[in-house]
């Protein structure tokens, strides 16, 4: 147990969270008697900020431990999570035929500019802050939403290239199979993150799987199952978005990360 003297407390509070760990290899983390600070070598950190800044957190859209980037930027993950959650939420309601709506054509603009453009921007900004997972996933999902929107734009006449509606559904189903594999791979990478992140990505790939089966089997039941999974996935994305933005300075309600087994956490 590392004990901080009373004369050191003010200096630590001023500098907490500003040090950079060159090599984020964590072994034993020592804490002060008051439980407010942690010590790694010669570095002192506020325990709460350390936990949120360097450990896997769904609100940051990261997996595994990491070091802070050299340049300071805002966290782009909540933007990508918000745009993803909003559009997936509405599309899932359409897949569930909520209020008798069965066509997502009214959402084409949202798919392009909200889920598409904003997720791609969030992905690029994630790469700037050295978040490879977030950069890859957000950018790919942004591309998916744009590509899906193009299928729905009637003047492009993409659907007219198929002789029957069944042929079109088969083509879309094959396309979604690729995204099912991608979602499954992304889900595996969350095994040492938080439970909220892990559960969200379970529903990411199961949403793609159900929708792929719905198109390939021409099954309304599988499409509705995809709507249910998508709705649950959007709820998880909303939660992670809130976790990434909330703190004691802006909200009375904050999210404490619940880590997966095997995640490196402070002791």
UniProtKB/TrEMBL annotation:
The yes or no answer to whether the keyword Membrane is present is yes
What keywords are annotated for this sequence in UniProt? Membrane, Transmembrane, Transmembrane helix
- Fetch the InterPro entries from UniProt: AceTr (IPR051633), Gpr1/Fun34/SatP-like (IPR000791), GPR1_FUN34_YAAH (IPR047622)
Q: Show the GO cellular component annotation of the record.
A: plasma membrane
**Cell location:** Membrane
Which NCBIfam families does this entry report, sorted A to Z?
AceTr_1
The family line of this record is: Belongs to the acetate uptake transporter (AceTr) (TC 2.A.96) family.
Q: What is this protein called?
A: Ammonia transport outward protein 2
Q: What is the native source organism of this protein?
A: Babjeviella inositovora NRRL Y-12698
